[in-house]
Amino acid sequence: MTSRSFWRLALLLALFAVAVPGRIALAQERGASLVAEGTSTMTVGGQRVAAARQQETVTLGGAGFTAGEFIGLWITLPDGSVVGLDDDDLRAAEDGMFVVELGLGPALPVGLHRFSARGQRSGSGAIVPFYLMPGRGPNTTEGTSLMFSPATARQLDTVEVSGVGFRANETVSLWLTLPDGSVVSLGEVQADATGAVTGSLFLPGALPVGRHFFTARGIESGSTAITPFVLQYGNGLNVPGARLAADLGRAPQRSVVALEIAGKSFAPGESVSFWLTLPNGSVLALGEAHAEANGNLSLELYLDESLPTGTHYLSFRSNRSEQGGFLRLFLAPGPQEPGQE
Predict the structure, then answer these.
(1) Chain segment 70-116, per-residue pLDDT in tens
(2) How many CB atoms lie within 10 A of CB 199?
(3) Which tens digit of pLDDT belongs to each residue from 256-289?
(4) Which domains does the chain have, with CATH numbers?
(5) Burial degree of 112 (CB within 10 A; 0-12, 13-18, 19+)
(6) Torsion, Cα of 175, 177, 178, 181 (10° steps)
(7) 25, 81, 143, 308: which one has the fewest Cβ atoms less than 10 Å from its Cβ?
(8) Whole-prediction pTM
């Protein structure tokens, strides 16, 4: 049996090697088995599954693979998006088994995840569910406070953040907890001689809409303050004059959608900007395409497995004639079993 540490998982931040024995959940299909061992368990939909908190670890054990074959490993997040975990260096031992330890960084969302493993030679695979719980965040400190103005803002806005009660001139670490429980580091600032911090924070369109929590913690003093704020839509669907151009229906992950945009006609050869609004309200820029000589535009959009499932809106705006609109698409899950791509 091969056993080793495997510390990479979905843009991990601040990993900690904490391994506490827990209960085991088992899933078996397509000739192999996969076991997840966390620090605890949780009942989800009547099923007992392994669980752990952000910044803890989960250990995966697989069996039933071909001796020495490479193992593909990936995780399906609660929103249906898929993240690959292997770098083509995880292999089964001579007995067809493997054991790998994964760090669960704070950047992972809270909720029910599914780990998948598949032998690249045998095609044998298995899936096991796993529940990620929120990490144990710091307690707030009396006398330390944080203010966020305004308390409700829109994507692409700039807001003012101020805090008091830290140690004079100490370094203060900042981070943001998103609505899904994942955590994004915002770096560090320096408190002034009175222990206060102030600054401006730009809210990019890539942030999801909903209730967020902004945290500041003094590195030396440990003084901590947390304040909530609500982020609303700020771009994507509010292009001036935008209209629903078409409902594209349903398409699965790992498929290609062909688009033909006509109608009023763009200026010949002009560039058209595209971006995608995800189900959680975050916005991804997709770049530009150029209209044809007849003013129409044709393009293909690949819906890869990193996109979450749910209703998406593909927005466009021409950069010369200033026409805008959006297309609606429901993204369905891709193949749920290894080997069925």
Answers:
(1) 999 999 999 999 998 866 689 999 999 999 999 999 999 999 999 99
(2) 12
(3) 877 776 655 788 889 988 888 899 999 888 888 8
(4) 2-133 (2.60.40.1930), 145-232 (2.60.40.1930), 244-332 (2.60.40.10)
(5) middle
(6) 140
(7) 143
(8) 0.81
